[in-house]
Every structure is written in C-alpha cells, then in structure tokens.
Amino acid sequence: MLSHRLLIRSGYISQLGAGIFSFTPIGWRVIEKIKDIIRSEMNSIDCYEANFPVIQPSDIWEESGRIDSFIPPLARFTDRRDKIMIIAPTHEESVISMVRSEVNSYRDMPFSLFHIQTKFRDETRPRGGLLRVREFEMKDAYSFHSNQESLDEVYEEFSKAYFNIFNRCGIDVIKVAADSGAIGGKVSSEFISIAENGEDTILKCDECLYAANEEKAEFKKIIKNDSENFMEKSEKETPNIKSIQDLTNFFSLDAHYFIKTMVYFSGKKPILVSLAGDLEVNETKLRNLLGDDVRLADNDEIIQLGLVPGFISPINNDFDLIVDDSINLKADYIVGSNRNNFHIEGISPSKEFNIKHYEDIAKAKKGDLSVDCDESKCKGMNEYKGIEVGHIFKLGDTYSQKMGLNFSDTEGKQKSVEMGCYGIGVGRLLAAVIEANSSEKELVLDKNISPFQVYLVNLNSDNTEVKEVSNSVYSDLINSDYDVLFDDRDEGPGVKFSDYELSGVPVRIVISKRSLENSEVEILERGKEDFKMVKIKDINKELSKLI
C-alpha cells in the first residue's frame, strides 16, 4: 500500500511485528493532532472523555455472550490468580460494567462517553500497513438512551461530527449502509474514503444516492424466469459441463434459467445454498441469516457428504436448503442431478424443494438497481473501492439486555437501555488520508494534522551569514507560535528537498547564500510548482496567508 511505503520511508512508523507498529516522534505528532480534532468534535456534541482498561476480566465477555463468538477470536491469557483475562478488541462490555451501576432512571439519560484507547485484534492476515493491524488505537464512543427516538437523534449528531472530523483531517468520505459484523446491533453505517486500492467494495447510485458496502447492499431483484411448464422434467446428459457459462452455451438458455447449488458449513453443519445462475452468494448475508460463521466446502468434503461437485442437486437429499429470493418458486429450472455428467430439466422449486429459508442471500453488483432506485430515473449502482475510516452502530438493547443495564421508565417499569456505538481507528485514518492525497514521491497531509507547520532549510550551512540568519528566522518563527522543523544538517539540497517531500509539512522555507543577496528567502507551498521570494521581514505576513 502507498501509505505503508510512505510512512516507512518518511520515518513515521517502525514495524515491530506482523500488524504491530511503533510510531516515531514525528509520526506521533500527527497521531496526537488527529486525536485533538476527534476530541474537539466529541466535545462539541457533549460526548465526555473517559478511559477504560485494555486488559479485561473474561466474566464480562461471558455476560455479553461474545467470549467464544467474537471474530477474530479473543486474545486471552491466564493471570497469576488463574483468572482468564481478555486483551480488549473493543469496549462495549467494560463501559456497560461501569455505567450500569450509575443508571437507574430515564432521567439519567441521554449521555455519551468516549475514550481513545489501545485495542488488539488477532487478525489472520494483517496487511496494508496501518490499514489492517492487530494492535491499534481507536476512538470508541458509547451513547445511552431511554428510547429509540433519542438514539436516532444522537446517532445523527455523531454522523455530522464524523463528517467534520474527516473533513478537518483532509479527506472526503461517503456514508454507506454497512454490516454490523462482530459489534452487532440493528443498524450501522460506515464512512468510506474512496480509494482505488481500498479493501472495501461500495455500491452507490449516483441518482438516488443510495450507498452501501457490498456486504450489506440490497438490490431490486427482477424475477427473470417467469416460465411455467415450458419444459418436461427429464434428465439431460451434460458431459463434463459444470459451470453456469458452459451450461448456458450447451442449452442455449440465459443463466437465470439455471439454479446453482453450493455446499457451505455453518459451524460443523453442512448447508445447501441455491440461487439463480446469474447471481453470487453474499456470505455476509448468509452468516447473518444463520447466526454463525460460514465457509464454502471443498470438493473432498462435498464428496464425503455423498454429493457430486459440479452437479450438486437441491432435491432428494436430507440437508437444510436455503434458497435465494431471486428464484421464482413456480417457474421451471434446470438443476444438478447429483449424478456425474447429468442435469435435470423442468424442476419447479415449489414442488421439488424442501426449503428451510427463502431469503435474500445474493450479492449485489454494478448495474443493479438499489432498493431506493426509481426505475424510470436511476441507471443502476456504480462500484467503487474505498477505505473504511469510521463505523457507527445503533446497538439498541443488544448488550444492555444481556448485561443487566436497565432503568425505570416514566411509569416505573424496568426497561433495557438503548445504546449507540461509534468508532474511528486513529492510525487507519492517518493511512487513509495519505492514500487519498499522496503520491509515490510525496507524502501529503492537511495542515491541520501535519507534524509541523514549517520546514525550514538552510543551504550552505558552512556559511556564517546563512547560519546566523537561519537561526534568527527559526527563533522568530518559534516565538510567533509556529511549529517549525529546522533542517540544519550538513547535507546537500537534494537530500534536504527529498526529505521535505516525505515530511508531510505544508510549507518549506529555504535560506541560502544566494537568497540572502536580496535579504530574501524562498517559500514553497506544498502542491505548488514554483516558490516565492519573500523578504525576511515579511515572512510572518506571508505565512499567515498560507497557514
């Protein structure tokens, strides 16, 4: 990833292990400025800063029911008292543990708390530098409410604050519907920075403005197969024809006349999944439907189940069958026969299938109409790559009900507290800013988060006049409350200018023997090709325009 290469070359970070990084002093200055912006915006919506431990007792994770279900699996160890301790990947459990002893009545709410704290998630494949790590700092906030209306209102306040945070850090984002994943809850939204090499796929309609992560995206399914009794039920020899593409060529029919069936494992249980031949399975939707992690079976496992790879049939077997709602249950389809080199024509799902679930489990794709699209105006969704920089959740009573976070309502009845959760990965945000604005040659940061405001360079450092004037200018800038990085090393111009390009600092001032001939300095604003000659006495005046 570009951000990883630049962060290493610029000396912002140092890798300690897989997905584990140290920040150098210059890198940490940027992190602290990002955190200052986050704190400012949290304060603006009356979200109060607290602090919760990284190491947590396993008891609270047993209360929430996540001790064995969190993905990736929780990192844990046994302390000297033989107690199992959790290295926190998130802090819902710990914040509830504190708040439930303080909240008694509806009068105690709403309120919001946040902290910026270390998290650890034992990712299987950490990658992309700071974009996918195991140890990281996150700002997570939690809001507490007596009713849904209050939660909805504060959720929107956090949404606006998030747009402000990302704008102040120097990136544009779009808000998209998202899957809630391991955090859970009823509704969630991600904030995505569009980037060609981003790991998230976003589907967005530019007309109706519907936007969602591919994992969550819902689309209007046009039932393309409306034909009933148009072919007799019969077996058809299909020698070594397994793929949908080969089947469409063999039968001279479009893909939606075929049903493809795959085998998944939900835990240790095999499940058959069937959908129209022109669609793909959305494994996130499938996982949410089953309430458990899923994986695609390999050929050996399929054979051990008594099924034939490439010719799996959704009929005449004892497995649970999940059917996507793209299939017209009354129409005729061609399906696998579970015999090598044979398919069956004329199968009506309503007559032949023993269906466990008939749900949306298909993956939306570019060109599909979103659920909000107006067919007369919208042209379908476009596909973008992006980086998730923030995620907010309406948790509802997902955790409060399990962990006994209750209150007395206006009638004195006990109810579970409604909760919201709001996260920003600080290092990930830095990486996303770099991905959005930088090039292989140049690390670009917004002036609000750059490590210094001014990069002061003295050339001809062996020249007494240059040295004295440079020191004087440096002192004047410091006394004028500018953050200045003074490069007075005994290096040539090429080295110093190259290091400036990797520094992320927005303004460069060069003092040289030649510039002092007219009592001037060179001032270059990042992003501009040409520098400006400015009188020494006017440096502060010029900087006030740029910074």
Structural features, described:
The chain has 547 residues and is an alpha+beta fold. The chain has three domains: 237 residues, BirA Bifunctional Protein, domain 2; 126 residues, YbaK protein (Alpha-Beta Complex), CATH 3.90.960; 93 residues, Anticodon-binding domain (Rossmann fold, 3-Layer(aba) Sandwich). It is 26% helix and 29% strand. The chain contains 14 helices and 29 strands. Strands 3, 7, 8, 9, 10, 11, 12, 21 and 24 form a nine-stranded mixed sheet that branches. A five-stranded mixed sheet has the order 16-14-15-17-20. Helix 1 crosses helix 11 and helix 2 runs antiparallel to helix 5. The mean pLDDT is 92.
- Basic shape: globular
Overall pLDDT level:
92
Measured by DSSP, the beta-strand proportion falls in: 25-35%
Architecture of the largest domain, according to CATH?
2-Layer Sandwich
Oligomer: single chain
CATH superfamily of the largest domain: Bira Bifunctional Protein, Domain 2
**Low-pLDDT residue intervals, each spanning 5 or more residues:** none
Q: State the share of residues found in helices, binned by percent.
A: 25-40%
Count of DSSP strands: 29
CATH class of the largest domain: Alpha Beta
* Rg for CA atoms: 29 Å
What is the overall number of helices? 14
Integer count of domains: 3
Give the biggest sheet.
9 strands, mixed
CATH topology of the largest domain: BirA Bifunctional Protein, domain 2
Structural class: alpha+beta
Q: State the distance separating the first and last CA atoms.
A: 30 Å
